[in-house]
Give the backbone structure.
Amino acid sequence: MVNHVESLYNYHVWANQRIIDHLKKLSPEKYQKEMKSVFSSVSKVLSHIYLVDYGWLNILEGQNMNEAMQSSLQLQEKIENLPIEDLEMEFSTLSTRFISFLKSQEDIEKRIMLDNPWASLRETSLSEMILHVVNHGTYHRGNISAMLHQLGDSSVMTDYAFYWYSDNVIQQK
């Protein structure tokens, strides 16, 4: 049986894939179109979700926050310039790595000291960090939805309740 934290992370993967599948229907010009919004383009928001997930996984695997942020920054230009199909592959590889990490944990409530360069030290659990990754992705998928409407397009529903009824949840039982 999948635990609640894994289920939430699986929802995050599902929601990202729904957005990616939808964005692949856009022209590359529209996907990368510069605009005045929360981010300068839809492609930059999607890249941001990936880079933050990448950084948090590195933290979960033992890197300090500064090192993890540097790793993400080193990837930023490459990730931001990938065609969506290549970014989709990067997301797939990262989510496989993330799920492997989750399955290897004996105690998802294990607490670690997180040294955030902007906010100082804080003891937190692995599960809280996963919940942050999921929440962060949800927030920015909302940005993508709003930006698509600005561009005259529709978005797709990625609410958690829609995930409950998807085939993905049934397959996990």
Remarks:
- Strands lie at 111-116, 120-125.
